[in-house]
Design a protein that fits this description.
Number of domains: 2
Number of helices: 15
Strand order of the largest sheet: 3-2-1-4-5-7-12
Organism: Exophiala mesophila
Radius of gyration: 22 Å
GO molecular function: alcohol-forming long-chain fatty acyl-CoA reductase activity; alcohol-forming very long-chain fatty acyl-CoA reductase activity
Family: Belongs to the fatty acyl-CoA reductase family.
Shape: globular
Function: Catalyzes the reduction of fatty acyl-CoA to fatty alcohols.
CATH superfamily of the largest domain: NAD(P)-binding Rossmann-like Domain
Mean pLDDT: 93
CATH architecture of the largest domain: 3-Layer(aba) Sandwich
Number of strands: 15
Helix content: 40-55%
Pfam family, one: NAD_binding_4
Order of helices and strands: EHEHEHEHEEHHHEEHEEEHHEEHEHHHEH
CATH class of the largest domain: Alpha Beta
């Protein structure tokens, strides 16, 4: 079949934090003339509260798109589907029609909940990947498919983490079956694989299966590290996600988080969401003469989208910048820091006296005074701190050194970017939401 004249991009995960910025960048660059005219279709599932049509309408109102020319969404359409289901949950006619039209695919839909039960994480991160690959195999005009993974598919170890599949203790197919079995000991499986949570494990399995079953598909896997606020686009500091660093920074900035298991000497690899979007789009190769020599030689190409140690952020620098910024811009109460270290008696003492005890007193007071709004707020803060305590220590204890072929712009400064993160957390996550 002859190739279509205009590229047609299918984007999954377009309602998420990274997905919005990828969509915004595709449209912005098309408006600037950097890209040829192209169509964009979003695959959107129904949520518990909204159907896909309502979710698309809500998406277009996001501030992420506020800098685009009016009418930008006229060239965007959506299809209702469910990536966990065979056939991507699409109507058969819609599936067949979409396969004929699509030339490029970006798959960034996933669950970033680190604590999902293993079977649920497998459905969200592995089944979705396999179903979109099957869709891609049925696209006669397909030119490129980009899967978004995570740089943490490789458990921590000394030395550089290379842009290659991470070792697994058993074949990926066996691990997938184990992940879906209700007889599997989840903790034992995570330990045997060296992974801290179900998210990184299922992403690693998904990469192996994608590489195995991609056949001749022109596939690139992009692995971001810790994604945070926008550096430049859509505008500095834009952020709408409390996942990963956003939740930690919001609790700290609001003056609720004072203790963390970790090491002040750990260096975090934090990468702006718009740089990740740039790396994803670069590997999509929308421009006909835009090629990767490595991608030409290999069907499966893996790239890290990371800051790297050169632009890494030491934990003590993050704490210092946060204390200075939110000390000047108090949201709820002035921030202060008590302890960062291993789970010693000192850790538990500071955690109890500075977090658990005062929040428990506040909850009791609002229970007695029947202030339901404040009760809910205190519960949310306590749940947020507990989530940080469960998810973040692994990354606070280990410094990763990622090898990468993708460049960070020469004018990028992590010191300046930490201020941008604080501004974004303050403006977009905290103001009006405490």
């Amino acid at each position: 079949m002859a190739q279509l004249d205009k590229p047609h991009v299918l984007l999954t995960g377009g309602t998420g934090f990274l997905g919005k910025v990828i969509l915004q960048e595709l449209v912005r660059r098309r408006q600037l003339g950097d890209f040829p005219p192209h169509k964009i279709t979003l695959l959107i599932r129904d949520s518990k509260k909204l159907d896909s049509k309502s979710r698309f309408a809500k998406l277009t109102q996001s501030r992420c798109f506020s800098k685009l020319e009016s009418g930008w969404s006229d060239s965007i359409d959506f299809i209702n589907g469910e990536l966990k289901s065979k056939g991507c949950g699409l109507n058969p006619d819609v599936y067949a029609e979409s396969c004929q039209k699509v030339t490029h695919i970006i798959h960034c839909a996933a669950s970033v909940d680190f604590n999902l039960p293993l079977a649920d994480a497998a459905a969200s991160n592995i089944d979705t990947c396999l179903n979109i690959l099957e869709f891609a195999e049925n696209c006669p005009n397909l030119q490129k498919i980009v899967l978004v993974s995570t740089a943490y598919v490789t458990p921590h170890r000394p030395g550089k983490v290379q842009e290659q599949l991470a070792a697994l203790p058993a074949p990926a197919e066996e691990l997938l079956l184990a992940a879906k079995s209700d007889r599997t000991d989840e903790k034992a499986l995570l330990k045997s694989c060296g992974h801290p949570n179900t998210y990184t494990l299922t992403k690693s399995i998904a990469e192996h299966l994608a590489a195995r079953y991609s056949g001749n598909l022109p596939l690139t896997i992009v692995r971001p590290s810790i994604i945070s606020a926008a550096w430049q686009y859509p505008f500095p500091g834009w952020l709408d996600s409390r996942g990963a660093l956003g939740g930690y920074a919001a609790l700290f900035g609001a003056g609720f988080l004072h203790v963390m298991e970790g090491s002040v000497d750990t260096t975090f690899d934090i990468v702006p969401v718009d740089i990740v979007a740039d790396h994803v789009i670069e590997n999509l190769c929308l421009v006909r003469d835009q090629k990767s020599s490595k991608a030409e030689q290999e069907n499966v190409h893996i790239v890290h989208s990371v800051a790297g140690l050169r632009h890494g952020s030491p934990a003590k620098s993050m704490i210092s910048v946060g204390l200075e910024y939110f000390g000047r811009n108090v949201v709820f109460q002035p921030p202060y820091w008590k302890y960062m270290g291993v789970r010693s008696p000192k850790y538990y003492w500071y955690r109890f006296t500075s977090q658990t005890f005062p929040l428990s007193l506040a909850r009791l007071y609002y229970d007695l005074t029947r202030n339901e709004r404040k009760q809910k707020q205190v519960r949310m803060v306590m749940q947020g701190i507990e989530k940080v305590n469960q998810c973040f220590p692994y990354f606070c204890l280990h410094t990763y050194d990622f090898a990468t072929t993708q460049r960070i712009p020469d004018n990028f400064s992590m010191e300046a970017y930490l201020d941008v993160i604080c501004i974004g957390v303050h403006k977009h996550l905290l103001l009006g939401n405490v």
